[in-house]
Amino acid sequence: MNYFSTLSRLGRDTAESATVKTQGANIKRVTTLALAIILGMTTSLNTFGNDEFGSKCAPDITPPVLAGVPAAITVECSSALPLPLVTATDVCDGDVLASLSVVFLQGGGNVAVTVERTWTATDAAGNSVSAMQTATRIDTTAPVIACPGDVTLDCPADMDPSNTGTATSSDTCDPDPEESFVDVIIPGENCRIERTWTAIDTCGNESSCLQTIAINDSRPPDLSCPAAATLECPGDISIAANGEATATHDCMIGDPVISSEDDTTDGCGDTVTVVRTW
């Protein structure tokens, strides 16, 4: 059966009106799309504003609808931020493209970075809708640090890290953690330096390790005594009045401990001889 049997009147290309005989009923459409529909037979009248959609799309004031926008999330730096599939549909245009914009915000404390992801969809009529997700990457994991091995040095000792070794570190979030060290001198028979290395990342997480630098010290300090003195009686034989010995040491580990001992011998009359041993 030929439902579109007779095209009684065609206007210009704009098709001001068209009348179609269909089973004895005349259907009149005043639209430029009617002619294309009658001739092509490939597009449903519903798409272009018949009774079912006309009230929604003429005019189109309804924005698209976004689906799949995730809630705010917080992840560790070692985990990647998941990228969800966000889609948009429109009552008049069907599927609509959902575009994504990303803003990175500087972190602070244990927050490495905050990412604001905004999806926006706009239909053919200019109606738009947007939705935002906040994704936060935190760093609560300390760097991994490895100390150089313990070493033993002969006096005089070169204790610079270029000679004794430097710590290395890595971090899941900071590609270049900062390394530093602090020395504690342990004097005495087992003279040594305890060097504590510390690595710290940009979020303030830190880890430490210990390196021991032993000093093989078989040389005594160099001691210099004050000059001998002869005093008139009554004389001041105190160290403050007659001078104090000084000492240096090649190892340069702390200051040498200086002590003295007096041996007094009485002479004739009021004469006294003091031998001060440093």
Attribute tags:
mainly beta; 4 helices; disordered N terminus; four-stranded mixed sheet; 8% helix; 278 residues
* Spatial strand sequence of the major β-sheet: 5-10-9-8
Question: What proportion of the residues is helical, as a percent range?
Answer: under 10%
Q: Please trace the helix and strand order, writing H or E for each element.
A: EEEHHEEEEEEEEEHEEEEEHEEE
Total helical elements: 4
Separation of the first and last Cα atoms:
132 Å
Specify the biggest β-sheet.
4 strands, mixed
Shape: rod-shaped
Radius of gyration computed on alpha carbons: 46 Å
- The total beta strand count reads 20
Structural class of the secondary structure composition?
Answer: mainly beta
Mean pLDDT: 77
Multimeric organization: single chain
Question: In percent, how much strand structure appears in the residues?
Answer: 35-45%
SSE order and pairing:
Blueprint: E1 6-10, E2 18-22, E3 25-29, H1 32-40, H2 54-57, E4 65-67, E5 73-76, E6 87-90, E7 94-96, E8 98-106, E9 111-122, E10 128-138, E11 144-146, E12 151-154, H3 161-164, E13 168-170, E14 178-186, E15 192-200, E16 206-216, E17 222-224, H4 239-242, E18 246-248, E19 261-266, E20 272-277
Parallel strand pairs: 5-10, 12-16
Antiparallel strand pairs: 1-2, 2-3, 4-6, 6-7, 8-9, 9-10, 11-13, 14-15, 15-16, 17-18, 19-20
